[in-house]
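Customer escalation, tier 2.

The customer says the design service returned an amino acid string that "doesn't look like it belongs to this structure." They asked us to rerun it and document both sides in this ticket. The original structure tokens are below, unchanged.
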């Protein structure tokens, strides 16, 4: 049986997200021996984490625009290849000083910033509407799967070899991916000579985007409350997400759990596995509700509210626990709520304007990346000045409540831009 062409795109996009996250997360583990070797303080560690998102912020909106205008295949392919090469070069720059490491981190961020708007733009042309949320959820499962892989394999590589080999080996995977992406994936369905007539007809009839995008004035976007609700939800989600993507290994390590112990692996692995299952299930849940006749906006707001408020409560409770088991259980429930929210703000862009999905995702994502820049810095300075994880968790909880409330009030699934 021949795999449908759109499924190949989903699989390769999933791998792109997986590689994106292993190359983003690896330093969260490698930073522990690197900090000891180079003598960095906690504030410097926060800067190393956050500087990556400066590059990400710069390229994200540009990547969405270029993907909508010229097709996501070339944009995503070049991005993965560049950030993979920069990942391989990270140890060289690290040994040339703190500022050199910050420079290469910005370059990695510039490469990775185009990832999500590029494949979102392609999905608007490739994926039928009734399959969209599950396709996005499957692709986004590369986030927790990549996170699991990076946390565990990085620790194993460091224990067996050295921190440098984490960057060499992870970067090489992206170079290999580029070969298959360039050879087998197409920007638009009609360019694929092997696609079946039945699949092409299905995509033409049901995929939301049907033409190459025109320009949307930025001022119109920033005055549009439904778009702003997506952007603010993205910002608030990213505040919590990137705080813990950066600091979870240090948090676990700070509980007295060593990198090479089975307890470290389990405390990272179990919540991440729950995240994978919840994310994919959440996508199917939202698609099923819409297919059964529930209004799109009711589905978007309901699952998003459950996701944000539920995760906020769990994160508030985490630092109040002394038992490692209770902490793991709360992290698992946090990820469960986040998975339920998969059909919310994260797939709302194409509802507002199918032909501009990449642009909307890129601009909203760039606004969200401001949180990714600030939150690790805030966490780093809080740890440096107070050593308090409680304050870090409670700030994340408050930010999620604000984002969930704003989205609940102002979100829409009605087309806003032609």
């Amino acid at each position: 049986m021949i795999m449908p062409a759109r499924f190949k795109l989903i699989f390769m996009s999933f791998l792109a997200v997986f590689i994106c996250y292993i190359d983003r997360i690896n330093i969260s583990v490698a930073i522990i021996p690197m900090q000891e070797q180079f003598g960095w303080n906690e504030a410097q560690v926060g800067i190393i984490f956050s500087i990556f998102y400066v590059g990400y912020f710069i390229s994200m909106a540009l990547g969405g625009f270029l993907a909508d205008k010229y097709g996501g295949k070339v944009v995503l392919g070049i991005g993965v290849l560049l950030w993979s090469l920069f990942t391989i070069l990270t140890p060289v720059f690290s040994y040339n000083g703190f500022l050199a490491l910050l420079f290469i981190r910005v370059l990695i961020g510039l490469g990775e910033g185009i990832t999500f708007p590029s494949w979102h733009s392609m999905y608007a042309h490739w994926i039928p509407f009734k399959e969209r949320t599950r396709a996005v959820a499957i692709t986004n499962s590369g986030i927790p799967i990549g996170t699991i892989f990076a946390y565990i394999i990085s620790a194993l590589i460091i224990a067996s070899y050295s921190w440098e080999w984490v960057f060499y080996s992870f970067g090489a995977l992206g170079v290999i991916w580029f070969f298959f992406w360039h050879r087998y994936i197409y920007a638009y369905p009609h360019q694929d000579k092997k696609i079946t007539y039945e699949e092409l007809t299905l995509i033409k009839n049901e995929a939301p985007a049907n033409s190459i995008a025109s320009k949307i004035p930025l001022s119109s976007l920033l005055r549009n409350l439904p778009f702003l609700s997506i952007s603010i939800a993205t910002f608030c989600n990213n505040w919590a997400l990137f705080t813990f993507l950066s600091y979870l290994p240090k948090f676990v390590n700070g509980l007295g759990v060593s990198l090479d112990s089975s307890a470290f692996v389990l405390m990272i692995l179990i919540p991440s596995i729950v995240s994978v299952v919840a994310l994919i299930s959440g996508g199917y849940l939202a698609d099923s509700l819409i297919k059964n006749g529930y209004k799109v906006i009711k589905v978007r707001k309901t699952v998003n509210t459950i996701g944000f408020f539920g995760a906020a409560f769990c994160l508030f409770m985490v630092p109040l626990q002394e038992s490692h088991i209770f902490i793991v259980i709360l992290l698992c429930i946090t990820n469960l709520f986040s998975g339920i929210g998969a059909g919310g703000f994260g797939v709302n862009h194409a509802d507002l304007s199918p032909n501009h999905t990449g642009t909307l995702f890129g601009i909203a994502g760039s606004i969200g990346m401001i949180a990714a820049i600030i939150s690790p810095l805030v966490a780093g300075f809080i740890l440096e000045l107070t050593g308090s994880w409680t304050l870090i968790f409670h700030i994340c909880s408050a930010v999620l409540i604000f984002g969930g409330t704003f989205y609940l009030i102002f979100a829409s699934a009605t087309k806003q831009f032609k």
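Tier 2 assessment: The sequence is consistent with the input. The chain has a mean pLDDT of 88. The CA atoms of residues 49 and 376 lie 6 Å apart. Sent an explanation to the customer and offered a walkthrough call.
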